[in-house]
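Supplementary notes for students who missed Thursday's class. We covered one full example, reproduced here. Read the sequence, then the structure, then the short commentary at the end.
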Amino acid sequence: MRTLADALGVTPMALYNHVEDRVSLLRALSDYVYRDVSQKFEQSTGTPRKRTEFLLINYYAAVLKHPNLSLSIFETPDAFSIEAARITNYLEALLKDAGLSLAKRKLWLEILVDFTHGSSIATATHQINKKSDRALIQGQSQRYEKALTELLNHVFP
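Structure (token representation):
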């Protein structure tokens, strides 16, 4: 909170007029960042498969755009936001639309979420640590999309 206050040119106490604590701040930031993913998804059309791909690719891109936020959220599970829950609910509904049983939906939800998080966090961490160039990040994103396509071939045959 002190680092943020310094960056904004205010006292740390000024931040507490707007948020309760670090967790509340992370939750609010997460809602702000991931709201765009939810809104784009709500406007999307197409088959459940295409919408699933659209949702996960946009979520992946949001994580890459704000890697420190995503890493902070993973370190602070209480910071799980309303928008993150909404994205998870959208994905679960899409898997239901695919006709999967409840057990298969839960399994594929876990697989797709963990795969997306793992890939985006690995790329984001590399980006933070190595100051990677855009071409490398773009290559990682293309590999993610290819792998996601393969996974979705099993969910939506």
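Commentary. The CA atoms of residues 15 and 86 lie 27 Å apart. Residues 102-130 form the longest helix (29 residues). If anything here is unclear, bring it to office hours.
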